[in-house]
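Allow me, if you will, to draw on your knowledge of protein folds for a short while. A protein sequence and the structure tokens that stand for its backbone fold form the material at issue. I would ask you to consider whether the tokens describe a fold that such a sequence might reasonably adopt. Thank you for your consideration; the sequence and its tokens are set out here:
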Amino acid sequence: MRSSACIINDLWDVKYDQQVERTANRPLACGSLNTNQAIGLLAGLLSGSLACLLQLDTTTIALGVTAIIPTILYPLAKRYTYWPQVVLGATLNYGAIMGYAAVSNSFSPEAILPLYLSTIFWTMIYDTIYAHQDKEDDIKIGVKSTALRFGDQTKPWLTAFSVGMISNLTIAGIVTNQTWPFFLAVAATSCHLGWQIATLQINSRKNCWKKFNSNQWIGAFILSGLFFGTLLKE
């Protein structure tokens, strides 16, 4: 589904991508892939996603079907609002809702909501950093982002988002009876976010790219915490 979302985004943004240095070499933007080929690949990926989705329970299937709507609409957000990262977070992290529903065979708002909110805050952190790479080009072509909205006040905003992420992760852990490895992972995540923000240089593309990429460690922390925490429960 992530690959499908990338194709949809590139189909919407091909004319914009051609004008941005970092994205000008994307397959559609540079012409190495045409629109019909992209649509064909998209159809194949969506078919595969649907085949996987149909193996799950009806609640998860219903959630999965509705996920296509924000996936299609997200690329338009940056044309109209300085907060497209919120829309991106709500779209990319829909899988957190689906995953919980599929594993638990239930829809528990008290667990799902903080989990979902924590992932949205995380996306707002790393994608705001990511957007700082393109802010000069974005101004030129009229595309909006939180990077442009926050400007020199980016670090205080990222700090607030980090508090939101850590708080909601902690709540989700408490509600779902996680064990100490999970909370250790949350603590490690908090430290990593602090490092990102403290050393971030918003006017350096190289630094922003490094900080954006470093978020893979946060994924590793949380996954490890969940894995070893589950082993302890057993």
User: Anything to note?
Assistant: The CA atoms of residues 165 and 176 lie 16 Å apart.
